[in-house]
Design goal:
A: alpha+beta, Glutaredoxin, Glutathione S-transferase Yfyf (Class Pi), Chain A, domain 2, two-stranded antiparallel ribbon, 6 strands, 45% helix, disordered C terminus, B: mainly beta, Rieske Iron-sulfur Protein, seven-stranded antiparallel sheet, six-stranded antiparallel sheet, 4 helices, 17 strands
Amino acid sequence: MSSKPNTQKGLYLYDYILSGNCYKVRLFLSFLQLDHELIPIDFFPGFEHKQTEFLELNPLGQIPVLMDDGFVLPDAQAILVYLAAKYDSTEAWYPKDPKLQGRITQWLAFADSITGSCSAARLHDKLGFKLNIEQARKKGHQNLRLLDDHLVENKIVGKDWLVLNRPTIADIACFPYVALAEEGGISLNDYPAARSWINRFKKLPQFIVMPGIPPLHGMKNNEGKFFNQEGLCFS
Amino acid sequence: MIQKPVLPKNWVAVGFSQDLEKGQINIVIIEELELVIWRDHKGQAHAWDNRCPHRGTRLSLGFVRGNQLACLYHGWQFGGDGQCVYTPSIPDSTPPKSLKAHTHRCVEFLGLIWVAPLDFEHKDIRGLESHVRDSMDFQPVRSMIIYCSAENIFNRLASIPFPPSRIMSRRLRSISNMRLIRETESVFLWEDDENRTLASYQFREIQPDFVEFNCESEGTADVLLFALQKIDSQKTALHLLLAPENWSSDPISLKLAYAQWSKKLRNQLEQVF
């Protein structure tokens, strides 16, 4: 690995820019406004995450991996829970309520199913991974239908997000590979509630982008300002 | 030769107004024709062929710039009438009149976005309006995709083997031997063993793919509107609207009940026979 932290102090994320699972951690670090350092892993074409040095960090050979003052934690969903529990003093992102935590964990598990379908289809289309693409897309559509149905019914009872009327780590866990689904040939045309949910994410303070997930208005005008919802400019 | 799909000569609902915010761009498909719909900063919705007249790029990949739609490829900007108004690489020139996106009629009515071809004779949606009882306060329930042809949905709506949740009240559900009777071509009755009418529902076709569904039971009446958007021969979007006799008694539960019922309806319609 190019730049292994020489000190164990601080927050480090073993990261790949095109990974939705790494992006969800970067996004949460941004929402929590936590200082951290990214350690780039050559996921493709180097498959650095499958090499001995990385396997010592995470025997599963998966990114992301978080290192917090020497504490090593793999798995995007586990990292979200850890960061919320340790650093979110407001308890907004992972409230200390048994039912809510149960509900949130349900969506964290669902996020893995989205990874296994929508993300798999994207790896096939974008990086040429060998897998059953029809099956991945079919499962992806099944997941998106479940998500869309849930968001529709939540909206009716006044909830804009998956668990509450504000985002939790459940939303962050599910967001990236839904927003990237089209890169795997899974169209979001059929899921208006999911599309609106994606747009709501992009309006959150401290929202950050990744390749394939542009801001609501991805270009600046000639004064270097972004356009907002009203077509007006802001810096 | 493959023929380019064309819009049907009709008003077609393509989604709810609430699902297209200012600055938002969506793709919708009507009978295999792909359209871009977008809302400008004044709030006006537009429906065009999803193709830049310059190099054919999908306009849905672009960005709304105030009241213009900018193509992602070369940044050409098109005004609400489809006319190209700005080409960034030659900023001082006036684009020729021939540079124009292919536009369609696009209006909003009943909280839905409706699209029709420019040469459609009933260019005023009020033709449709006169068929919908204006005293009704319709609100969106939801849009959903059903893997079933619009024709099949239309034919089977009239004989769907279960009524909406409102009719399936607790009291009615406790009656075990309810029978569905086809009273006339469009009127259906739920009767008990002693031929007493428990509930009735009636279909009325307002135009092809736009159906009104009146349900009455226990002294309450709900009106559902089904706006069907034919995507292709196997796939249809259903936009479901609801107007109960009055919205005052727990509108949230009522809407939720119909949203949940619509999932059952979708399951029924997607079962292969």
